[in-house]
Design brief:
The complex is a heterodimer of chains A (148) and B (431).
Chain A (H helix, E strand, L loop, with lengths): L1 H16 L9 H7 L6 E3 L10 E5 L10 H4 L2 H5 L9 E8 L2 E9 L11 E2 L2 E2 L1 E3 L4 E7 L3 E4 L3
Antiparallel strand pairs in A: 1-8, 2-3, 2-7, 3-4, 5-6, 8-9
Chain B lengths: L1 H26 L8 H15 L36 E5 L2 E7 L6 E7 L10 E10 L2 E11 L1 H4 L3 H4 L13 E6 L5 E8 L2 E5 L2 H10 L23 E11 L2 E13 L4 E2 L12 H10 L1 H8 L3 H9 L1 H21 L9 H18 L1 H11 L9 H20 L7 H10 L4 E4 L2 E4 L3
Antiparallel strand pairs in B: 1-2, 2-4, 3-9, 4-5, 5-6, 6-7, 7-8, 8-11, 9-10, 12-13
The chains are: A alpha+beta (148), B alpha+beta (431).
Chain lengths: 148, 431
């Protein structure tokens, strides 16, 4: 009987999960990092939320490229418009399988389009310690991030 | 006791499921849930309240039936819907009620040029098109007039042309008015090819919106053919309305110009008549995906969407289709700056040209690239504009058989006739 209750509670949890709002915890941090003299964004030092994985979604990333982590939050991620957008990247912080931050970053502010990570055409993540990105100026003062 | 607890939890789950999904289900009304008869009855009640019946047939020639605001001939005073013959269907995700006019023999319209002042013996028919609106419905009168050559094909074939479906060989004119006689839009067809009739005001607006394409030549490769602006031949159109065989109105409705801006209808029907803020709001309200996409548009695109909501919806649907198709056809490829990206842009513009004509397809395609330079590198814009143009040209090359567009564009992609970016340089597409 307890098992039945547990199943029902899980059903309740899954049921309303689709309605969750995922906060943007990262945008402000990126802005402060752009002022760093060594042109480096150290996501690894970001500690406003508990996280261990960073996903960089580049323009036109679509659901066929989603792995299991991303599929769990497909609705939230697609609502950013990344699937049809030329002008922004989306950065996701995960704590295990839980999405804890979703940030839409204008490519005009800083462009992560070259920092995306694909393995067998599935979006892959950077682990927290590896999240140190160098950026440089390119094409009329655009800030462009390279892969770590 | 335990069973009671389980029962309560189950009830809560069902209730919360309903609550959580309520908004979504409102946005996606199941067609089966909408009963045609109920819908038609509601529309009828709305129409009768909005346009009270006025029996003018007694002496039409001696009365003035003009719209008090615009002076246009007020159709609602001479025609009413034949509700017994009303049909309800879905189009563009919207419920449509199409109703032929009652006593149609007494209401005849003739669309003519300035030169052809004589009434021609051609087939024509008129129907009410009733669409849902935020506070009830909106009604339009659709007037279909065949040209003399098409009229010879007979009434049975002519009558197959409806709001939802056009004969692929249809030649003639289709005009949309409000019941009060205000012209909203019109199209001229020649063997299924459609050109919008533009009023002078629409022409001015379109010119103001036009974004000049600026393709950077691609060194070392054959440049894609570019649509030159051909010399234009324009025709002014007038509509004569006869009630009980008496000419009661003769009105200039707009002008068509022969250019590259025509496209076949191929049974899909013309774009819906209304181009109003209300219509856009409705589309956004009924289509959450469209609403999400709209929210992300740049200001130039939003202005265009506001101006041409029906076209915008087709553009959005084509974008979805192209995204999906590029992901399927080039599975395993990134969708950014690659052959998949090039294919998607070309297909999107070809499909838009198919639905809207090349001129309007270019308006939407160019507008999509109107983002600040910082937000998208110049080379990416160049790539996108180039592939957009090749897509529109692909449509022009396949007007006779648009159904092979997809294969044609795929072939362009794999034979290096689209452009992609490699090592920061624009190069011919390759696998």
């Amino acid at each position: 009987m307890k098992k039945n209750i547990l199943i029902l509670l899980i059903a309740l949890f899954v049921n309303c999960r689709a309605e969750r709002e995922i906060p943007d915890k990262l945008s402000g941090f990126i802005t402060t990092q752009l002022a760093q003299k060594d042109s480096t964004i150290r996501f690894s030092e970001f500690s406003d939320v508990i996280w261990n994985k960073l996903y960089v979604l580049t323009p036109y990333t679509n659901e066929s490229q989603f792995n299991e982590d991303l599929n769990d939050y497909k609705g939230e991620i697609l609502r950013t418009g990344i699937k049809a957008s030329d002008s922004e990247n989306v950065l996701l912080l995960y704590n295990g399988k839980i999405l804890v931050s979703i940030s839409e970053i204008s490519r005009g502010q800083i462009d992560f389009a070259k920092a995306g990570k694909l393995i067998s055409n599935k979006v892959s993540f950077y682990t927290k310690p590896a999240c140190i990105f160098k950026f440089r100026t390119e094409d009329k003062n655009r800030l462009v991030v390279d892969k770590p | 006791m335990l069973r009671l607890i389980i029962g309560l939890i189950a009830a809560f789950v069902i209730f919360s499921n309903y609550s959580c999904k309520k908004e979504r289900s409102q946005n996606f009304p199941s067609p089966a849930a909408i009963k045609s008869s109920t819908e038609i009855t509601a529309a009828k009640n709305w129409y009768n309240q909005s346009f009270p019946k006025n029996d003018i047939h007694k002496n039409p020639s001696t009365k003035i039936h003009s719209n008090s605001n615009t002076g246009a001939f007020d159709f609602s005073t001479v025609v009413s819907p034949d509700w017994e013959k009303a049909v309800q269907y879905e189009r563009f995700g919207t419920s449509v009620i199409e109703v032929p006019i009652a006593d149609s023999n007494n209401f005849i319209t003739n669309v003519r040029t300035a030169e052809s002042v004589q009434r021609q013996e051609v087939l024509s028919k008129s129907s009410f098109i009733i669409l849902p609106a935020v506070n009830g419905y909106r009604a339009y009168i659709m007037i279909v007039v065949a040209d003399s050559a098409y009229s010879k094909r007979g009434v049975a074939i002519f009558n197959k042309n409806t709001y939802a479906q056009k004969d692929s060989l249809f030649s003639g004119r289709i005009l949309y008015y409000t019941p009060n006689g205000d012209f909203t839009s019109g199209y001229v067809f020649k063997n299924g090819l459609m050109s919008p009739i533009e009023t002078m005001e629409q022409k001015r607006q379109q010119q103001a919106q036009a974004v000049k394409i600026n393709l950077v030549p691609d060194p070392g490769s054959q440049p894609a053919p570019i649509d030159d602006v051909p010399p234009q031949t324009c025709t002014d159109w007038f509509v004569d309305t006869y009630v009980d065989h008496v000419l009661v109105s003769s009105e200039y409705v707009g002008t068509t110009c022969s250019s590259g801006s025509s496209g076949p209808v191929n049974g899909g029907g013309t774009a819906p008549p209304p181009t109003s803020d209300d219509y856009l709001k409705e589309l956004l309200q009924k289509n959450p995906k469209f609403r999400d996409a709209y929210d992300k548009l740049n200001p130039t695109e939003k202005a265009l969407f506001n101006q041409y909501p029906a076209s915008a919806f087709a553009v959005f649907a084509n974008a979805e289709l192209s995204l999906q198709d590029a992901a399927d056809v080039f599975a395993g490829y990134s969708q950014h700056n690659t052959i998949a990206d090039a294919y998607r842009h070309a297909l999107w513009n070809a499909l838009n040209s198919h639905n809207l004509g090349t001129a309007r397809a270019q308006l939407f395609g160019d507008a999509h690239e109107q983002v600040p330079n910082a937000d998208q590198p110049t080379i990416e814009k160049t790539m996108d504009l180039y592939n957009n143009q090749v897509g529109r040209n692909a449509y022009v090359a396949n007007v006779a058989n648009p159904y092979i567009l997809r294969a044609y564009i795929y072939n362009l992609a794999i034979t290096g006739q689209l452009r992609m970016i490699e090592n920061g340089v624009l190069v011919p597409t390759h696998l």
